């Protein structure tokens, strides 16, 4: 057996510097070294024999054998081969060094086996760009795994002071169903790791435990402060499972768990105890006949998505994508796509519906940047999917969301963008060419509908999170108007909705504009005149081109009905004109101006429901009936002479 004459490497040579560390720079240190196959092997459990021939070292071992090595490196022209009894057999290789020095393992040649291979080296493991590893399964770690845990099948890697990095720049291949686990305080991949129908895990922590709990995906439990898992290469597991875990997780390359087989959906989990970053240009995909499942989570920090994330279904439904964290941003040209040919999937950004799912982490702040895109479309048939953008505090939506119904059949999907404070100036599309359009729900604390609003997403630091949200939620008329072209819009404020401009909706034939408030819907507010001076309480009107209008004050659906919430307006304003659309008004009190639902193709119905007080209608121009759900006095001032303001009995009879 040949032995290595290379000078032992110092662990400090490979100490991780910054999250943007150049992995290639580390790899270059190994290319000029003259390394040999592993040396000084002794068997501590099971049996193994060693045969050296030229540049090839062959080890024949029993299942669960444990071998301690003085060094374990493979030079560029070297081959180390483990012959095992079956693909399920496993051998543990532990580097213990000599004379108190443990040399780093540098793999630049070929490591092969028909079984599974474990390699443990506290000084670190560096797999160079020329390396080729072809095994049934591969585990590389600079943390400690006790012999007893190994023999019991327990993957409990414990803290090792001064543990080195684990890096791969080569090619690692397993047979179908194999597993590749890279474990250490700093784990990096710039090469290619392939495990078809298997599992790939990069886990960075002080200590790490990989537990199989009756599911195909191992559960990763780790303790991490600043440990980093980084991928700038390719992690590929067709119909399999891929995970990256650490305090800091950065995905700058390709993570691909696509499937060509019906029912064999891939799964991806990128989970950081602190921050998660998906770089611009990165691709994270679990596509297939039906879309797979992707979890992107920054449990205690910021989740920034600038790359492409897909769980698309080529013939079935789209999959499920969750982007969670304390702060979540789809920024730059980030794309999240859970579309499917037979129906859209589910996308959760910052939380689930109303933030009420205890199994889904709620964000404090969420941002969808101006060029951020979220899709959950149906392709040929089926309904559009479900998209939730949520935060407990501040949500800024400036990008685009689509949940369209199928081209041949199916209805539009459902979109919710919500937060205690909400800035919504993006676009939503839930059209359905051969079905009913979907709905967009916006449900913050208070809502201000303004003419233009603060529609610019300005970010001095490049990231638009608001740690001190204090503004009322601002939604522009243009945003509502553009969305009504394809989507019904529901504003659902827990407190008040304030109209601070005329709401002129040019689109929306067949769509519905709904405003629901736990307290008041005010069709007026204080506005500074164009000529200057102090703000003046000014009344405003609602006009649509066929869209239905529903206003509900004191609404239990807001989850915070005040008991006295009313629709309010000023004299001479509060007029509602729908050009054929229907009007429904609800509240403790309802005070509006003129209601006109006449249109070229017919007249929309009007329904007014008030609990105790009056509805003051300046005029009504319609031929359909006015319906109400309770008896209360109604005063009508209409252009039709058969209605007289004092003729309450006739008015009441017509209004039933």
Describe this structure in words.
The chain has 656 residues and is mainly β. It contains four helices and 64 strands. The strands form seven sheets. It has a 34-stranded mixed sheet that branches. A 15-stranded mixed sheet has the order 2-3-5-8-11-15-18-23-25-27-29-31-34-37-40.
Summarize the structure in short.
4% of the residues lie in helices and 42% in strands. It has 656 residues and is mainly beta.
Outline the secondary-structure elements.
Blueprint (H helix, E strand, L loop, with lengths): L22 H9 L10 E4 L2 E6 L2 E6 L3 E5 L9 E5 L6 E6 L9 E3 L2 E4 L2 E5 L4 E3 L4 E4 L1 E5 L5 H5 L3 E3 L8 E3 L2 E4 L4 E6 L1 E4 L2 E3 L4 E6 L2 E5 L7 E5 L4 E4 L2 E3 L4 E11 L2 E3 L10 E12 L4 E3 L7 E13 L2 E3 L9 E11 L4 E3 L8 E4 L15 E4 L4 E3 L10 E5 L3 E4 L2 E3 L11 E5 L2 E4 L2 E3 L9 E4 L4 E4 L22 E4 H7 L4 E6 L3 E3 L3 E3 L6 E6 L3 E2 L1 E4 L8 E4 L2 E3 L3 E5 L14 E2 L7 E2 L5 E5 L2 E2 L3 E2 L1 E2 L2 E2 L2 E5 L4 E3 L2 E2 L4 E2 L6 E3 L11 H8 L1
Parallel strand pairs: 3-5, 4-6, 5-8, 6-9, 7-10, 8-11, 9-12, 10-14, 11-15, 12-16, 14-17, 15-18, 16-19, 17-22, 18-23, 19-24, 22-24, 23-25, 24-26, 25-27, 26-28, 27-29, 28-30, 29-31, 30-32, 30-33, 31-34, 32-35, 33-36, 34-37, 35-38, 36-39, 37-40, 38-41, 39-43, 41-44, 42-43, 42-45, 44-47, 45-48, ...
Antiparallel strand pairs: 1-4, 2-3, 13-20, 20-21, 49-50, 58-59
């Amino acid at each position: 057996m040949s032995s290595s004459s290379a000078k032992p490497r110092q662990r400090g040579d490979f100490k991780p510097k910054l999250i943007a560390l150049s992995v290639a720079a580390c790899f270059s240190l190994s290319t000029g070294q003259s390394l040999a196959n592993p040396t000084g092997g002794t068997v501590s459990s099971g049996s193994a024999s060693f045969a050296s021939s030229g540049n090839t070292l062959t080890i024949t071992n029993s299942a669960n054998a444990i071998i301690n090595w003085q060094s374990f490196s493979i030079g560029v022209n070297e081959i180390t081969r483990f012959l095992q009894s079956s693909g399920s057999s496993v051998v543990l290789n532990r580097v213990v060094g000599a004379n108190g020095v443990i040399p780093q393992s540098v793999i630049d040649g070929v490591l092969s086996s028909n079984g599974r291979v474990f390699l443990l080296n506290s000084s670190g493991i560096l797999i160079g760009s020329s390396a080729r590893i072809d095994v049934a399964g591969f585990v590389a770690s600079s943390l400690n795994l006790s012999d007893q845990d190994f023999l019991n099948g327990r993957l409990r890697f414990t803290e090792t002071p001064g543990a080195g990095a684990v890096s791969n720049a080569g090619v690692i291949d397993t047979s179908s169903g194999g597993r590749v686990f890279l474990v250490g305080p700093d784990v990096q991949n710039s090469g290619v790791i392939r495990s078809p129908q298997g599992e790939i895990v990069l886990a960075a922590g002080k200590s790490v435990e990989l537990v199989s709990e009756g599911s195909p995906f191992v559960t990763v439990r780790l303790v991490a402060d600043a440990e980093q898992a980084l991928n700038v290469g390719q992690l590929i597991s067709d119909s399999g499972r891929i995970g990256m875990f650490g305090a800091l997780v950065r995905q700058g390359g390709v993570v691909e768990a696509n499937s060509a087989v019906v029912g064999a959906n891939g799964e991806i989990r990128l989970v950081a105890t602190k921050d998660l970053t998906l770089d611009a240009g990165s691709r994270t995909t679990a596509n297939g006949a039906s879309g797979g499942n992707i979890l992107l989570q920054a449990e205690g920090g910021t989740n920034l998505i600038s790359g492409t994330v897909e769980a698309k279904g080529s013939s079935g439904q789209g999959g499920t994508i969750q982007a969670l964290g304390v702060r979540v941003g789809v920024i730059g040209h980030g794309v999240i796509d859970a579309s499917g040919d037979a129906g859209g999937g589910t996308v959760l950004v910052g939380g689930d519906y109303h933030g009420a799912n205890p199994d889904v982490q709620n964000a404090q702040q969420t941002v969808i940047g101006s060029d951020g895109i979220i899709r959950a479309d149906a392709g040929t048939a089926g309904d559009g999917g479900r998209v939730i953008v949520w935060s407990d505090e501040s949500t800024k939506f400036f990008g685009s969301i689509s949940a369209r119904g199928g081209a041949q059949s199916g209805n539009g999907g459902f979109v919710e963008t919500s937060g205690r404070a909400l800035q919504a100036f993006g676009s939503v599309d839930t059209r359905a060419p051969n079905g009913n359009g979907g709905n967009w729900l916006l449900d913050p604390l208070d809502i201000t509908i303004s003419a233009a609003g603060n529609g610019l997403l300005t970010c001095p630091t490049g990231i638009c999170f608001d740690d001190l949200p204090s503004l009322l939620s601002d939604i522009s008329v243009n945003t509502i108007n553009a969305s009504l072209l394809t989507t019904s819009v529901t504003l659902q404020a827990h407190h008040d909705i304030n109209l601070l401009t005329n709401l002129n909706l040019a689109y929306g034939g067949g769509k519905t504009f709904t405003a629901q408030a736990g307290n008041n819907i005010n069709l007026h507010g204080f506005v500074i005149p164009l000529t200057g001076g102090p703000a003046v309480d000014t009344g405003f009107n609602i006009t649509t081109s066929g869209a239905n209008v529903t206003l509900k004050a004191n609404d239990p659906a807001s989850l915070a009905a005040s008991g006295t919430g009313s629709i309010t307006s000023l004299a001479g304003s509060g007029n509602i004109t729908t050009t054929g659309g229907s009007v429904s008004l609800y509240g403790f009190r309802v005070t509006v101006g003129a209601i006109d639902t006449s249109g070229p193709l017919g007249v929309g119905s009007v329904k007014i429901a008030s609990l105790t007080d009056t509805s003051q209608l300046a005029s009504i121009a319609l031929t359909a009936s006015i319906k109400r759900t309770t008896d209360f006095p109604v005063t009508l001032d209409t252009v039709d002479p058969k209605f007289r303001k004092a003729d309450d009995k006739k008015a009441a009879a017509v209004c039933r």
